[in-house]
Structure formats: C-alpha cells, structure tokens
Specification:
Elements lengths: L2 E14 L2 E14 L3 E5 L6 H8 L7 E10 L2 E2 L5 H7 L4 E4 L3 H4 L6 H12 L4 H14 L5 H4 L9 H12 L6 E5 L7 H18 L2 E6 L2 H7 L2 E6 L2 E7 H6 L4 H8 L49 E4 L2 E3 L10
Parallel strand pairs: 3-8, 3-9, 6-7, 7-8
Antiparallel strand pairs: 1-2, 1-4, 4-5, 9-10, 10-12, 11-12
Helix pairs in contact: 4-5, 5-7, 7-8
Length: 324
C-alpha cells in the first residue's frame, strides 16, 4: 500500500506556567492511500491534537517542537503558512469534533461552503453555489437549494455534521481527518454518519484518519489501528489483531472494558487508576502505574515500539511474554 501521509517522531507541547504539557510525545505512523486508519484512546490521549498538528492548526500556547509530517513525500512542517492554507481543505480536510462550534454561526451554510470552494479554486460564486447545493444533496440533506440559506442553528445535530462533511469534501481532498465525527449524536444518526463517510470514502478514494474512543466503530470501519495513551503510541496493528491478538496491556484493558450487551452476565471490567498528569509523566511507560503486568523494566526509560509481527508493533517490554 502506498503511504500517502507519514508522521515521524511528532511532538506537540504546551508551555504553561506550571510546566510543559506533552500533548503529543514522539509518535510515528503512516496512512496509506485509500486506507481507513483508526486513532483510538481515552479522552486526553492526544488524538485530536495529533490531527491538529498534521494540518498545523495547534491552538496557542501549543507548539510543534519536533518531528516531520510527510504528505506525498513533502515535509509539511517545512512549508510556509501560505502554502499550508492552500493545502487545508484542498488536499487534507478535517471534520471537527463539535460542528456547532466549528461552523460560523453568523454565516449561512451555503456561504461557508462557497467560501471554501472559492478559497481554493478559480470559480465564480454562481458556480460555487451550484456545487454547494450538489454537496448538500450528496451528504443526504433534503431540499439542498433552500437549505443553503439557512444558518447552523436551524440544522439538527446530525444535519450540522452532514454540513461539516460537505465543507470538508468541497474541494475533493485526498485525506480526511475525522475527529470523533459521531460524538453527541444518537445511535441511529451515528450509524448514518458512519455509513455516509464510508460511502464517500469509496466514491472519492479518500484516505481517512478516524479518531474515536469507540472500539465498536473501529471494528466496523478501520483497516489499521493506532492506540494512543498519554500522548504516546502503545500499539499499532490491523483491526483483526487488535481484538484477537493485542500485545499491550492498555489495549487489552480497553477491549475488556467494552460492555458485552448481556445484562447480568459478569461484572464490567474497568482499567484501575487515573490517566497520568501530562505535566508529570512517569519515567518509563506512561501506563505502568495502572498496569497489572508491570515489572521493573517498565520504569526504565521511554518505551519504543517493538515488532510483534509484520505490521504489528507494541510498546510493551513484555509483549512476547504475555497472551501467547
């Protein structure tokens, strides 16, 4: 599979009065052409900040302090900002986690789509508006011509998310960063949005980086999976091995904590303890204080990813001793 997007040793830190918050701490992974790659982990694990780092929209006082981000062989971190503005939306688009805050409340939906198209392509407002209506129709919004003139508050949560998808696809990007696109939607609407993005992924040949904490969604849509914890990568594997042959205690903990849907059958298993303070991470593996399999070596320096099998990597020092 051709690698379209490659992240190498990426670190994004926030300089605060209390110290340095390592939101993303030396991560590396690749997204292949036409692939759906899941980025999973608990809240605060660095998933959203990874996406924002890729398109260089890290909010202040955050800063990318190390690493490289290659898109089609070119390091985006070396690009001037005016080149990045052209890349965002045209080559790499992002669906934000909460559409009500991502959409501009004082501009109509149509104005926001038109603005995106005109910002990247040499076209007229009339043609851009026509394409905007086609995009709303494509993402399943009824009466698209009239709804172009409506504002975000006039759309339901599911329709706002569809409008966000329309904006993200306006210039036919090659990479879509989907930051928990089904958060805060009811189950039926979640399923509709997932199916919509997958259909569009096939139709447009998109490569998708799907951020989620829902392993059910991962099982449904992803090819490969990157598991993050405290800004670091714990495991990289294909979706089958994630559930059948995971080799990191944190990944196992996430899987074991999934409700089985059978009421009264056993106790729900949770991961003990709390996520670490990013201002004061452990010396070794960040998961060590919560891990029931930890040994002395777990606290001796930062963990590196080790090859389990082709395409499968684990940051656990005991990956070859557990669950054989």
């Amino acid at each position: 599979m051709t690698e379209l997007l490659t992240v190498e040793n990426l670190s994004t830190h926030f300089i605060t009065q209390d110290g340095i918050v390592k939101a993303v701490d030396g991560i590396s992974f690749s997204l292949g052409a036409g692939q759906v790659l899941g980025l999973v982990g608990e809240s605060g694990s660095g998933k959203s900040m990874t996406c924002r780092s890729i398109i260089r929209l890290v909010p202040a006082p955050g800063k990318i302090v190390d690493g490289k981000i290659y898109y089609q062989g070119e390091n985006l971190l070396a690009w001037p900002e005016n080149h990045m503005r052209q890349l965002r939306g045209r080559e790499i688009s992002m669906i934000m986690q909460e559409p009500m805050t991502a959409l501009n409340p004082v501009l109509s939906i149509g104005e926001q789509i038109v603005e995106t198209i005109i910002g990247h392509e040499n076209t007229t407002k009339v043609e851009a508006r026509k394409r905007s209506a086609e995009l709303l129709k494509l993402v399943g919004i009824p009466s698209p011509e009239s709804r172009l003139d409506e504002y975000p508050h006039q759309f339901s949560g599911g329709m706002r998310q569809r409008a966000m998808i329309a904006i993200a696809l306006a210039c036919k990007p090659k990479v879509l960063l989907a930051d928990e696109p089904t958060t805060a939607l009811d189950v039926t609407i979640q399923d509709q949005i997932i199916r919509l993005i997958l259909d569009l992924q096939v139709e447009f040949g998109l490569s998708v980086l799907w951020v989620t904490h829902d392993l059910g969604v991962v099982a449904q849509i992803c090819d490969q999976v990157v598991v993050m914890y405290a800004g670091q990568i714990m495991e990289i594997t294909n979706v089958i091995d994630l559930f059948e042959n995971s080799r990191h205690p944190y990944t196992r903990g996430l899987i074991e904590s999934i409700p089985n849907g059978n009421a009264g059958e056993g106790k729900l298993i949770s991961i003990p303890g709390q996520t670490p303070n990013l201002l004061n991470l452990p010396e070794g593996c960040p998961f060590e204080p919560r891990c029931r399999f930890s040994v002395n070596d777990c606290s001796k320096g930062k963990m590196s990813l080790k090859l389990v099998s082709p395409g499968h990597f684990s940051a656990c020092v005991r990956f070859d001793q557990l669950w054989n």
